[in-house]
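Practice problem 4.
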């Protein structure tokens, strides 16, 4: 299937359903992931409306939402999950950029540490938990997104896949679909110019592509951090996110054929 869905001004939008999950299969047209929608055109909004979204999970911090507010189509009445927990006075990404040498290695190092901490950030725990609760209690398609639709979104999509019984190979393969070199080449100059404006230094093309992409080791780092503290992903889902046996069964009924 073609997972990526093209929009005029919404990046990295794709269906993360329709994977084998043991003897069953994730439904298609039910689970979506994307970057933010603040620049969505009217055509984009109409296309999103046609998907029938009933839940939108915005994983961004409040300052990100204020800087790039989401656009919605007229009459949208779905559930929006977001929070203002743990708002930092400084955006950690901006703090890193200002103090970094802007090398590809620096971006990889930052992201590895980010993924190591991400599963236990209070804001993420709240959002991830509410997402799984909504997934067990609502009907209709769900969209999860952050700013770029790759990190916070990637972890949550991977946890959804694990819960459903998707294979490790498919979990990683879906995670790596963010790496669209054509999109990176198109966006890299704009991204580099933004960083030059912030720092007075122009990063290399290689560094920008590294920053926009994901590596398998990122997701492996997040899962390893979970195993260190909770032994298994299932224990994390239940003990930290509140996804007990009854909720797992309700989610499976909703998202699996």
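Answer key:
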């Amino acid at each position: 299937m073609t997972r990526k869905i093209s929009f005029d001004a919404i990046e990295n939008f794709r269906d993360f359903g329709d994977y084998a999950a043991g003897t069953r299969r994730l439904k298609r047209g039910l689970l979506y992931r994307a970057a933010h929608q603040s620049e969505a055109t009217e055509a984009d909004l109409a296309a999103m409306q046609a998907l029938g979204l009933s839940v939108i999970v915005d994983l961004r911090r409040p300052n990100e939402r204020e800087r790039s507010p989401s656009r919605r189509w007229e009459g949208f009445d779905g559930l929006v999950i977001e929070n203002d927990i743990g708002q930092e006075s400084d955006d950690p990404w901006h703090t890193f950029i200002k103090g970094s040498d802007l090398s590809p290695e620096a971006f990889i190092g930052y992201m590895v540490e980010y993924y190591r901490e991400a599963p236990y950030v209070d804001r993420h725990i709240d959002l991830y938990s509410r997402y799984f609760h909504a997934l067990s209690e609502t009907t209709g398609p769900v969209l999860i997104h952050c700013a770029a639709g790759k990190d916070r979104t990637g972890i949550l999509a991977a946890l959804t896949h694990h819960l459903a019984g998707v294979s490790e190979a498919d979990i990683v393969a879906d995670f790596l679909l963010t790496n669209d070199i054509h999109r990176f080449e198109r966006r890299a100059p704009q991204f580099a110019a933004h960083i030059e404006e912030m720092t007075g230094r122009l990063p290399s093309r290689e560094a920008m592509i590294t920053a926009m992409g994901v590596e398998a080791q990122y997701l492996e780092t997040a899962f390893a951090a979970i195993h260190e503290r909770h032994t298994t992903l299932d224990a994390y889902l239940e003990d930290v996110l509140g996804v007990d046996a009854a909720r797992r069964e309700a989610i499976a009924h909703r998202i699996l054929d």
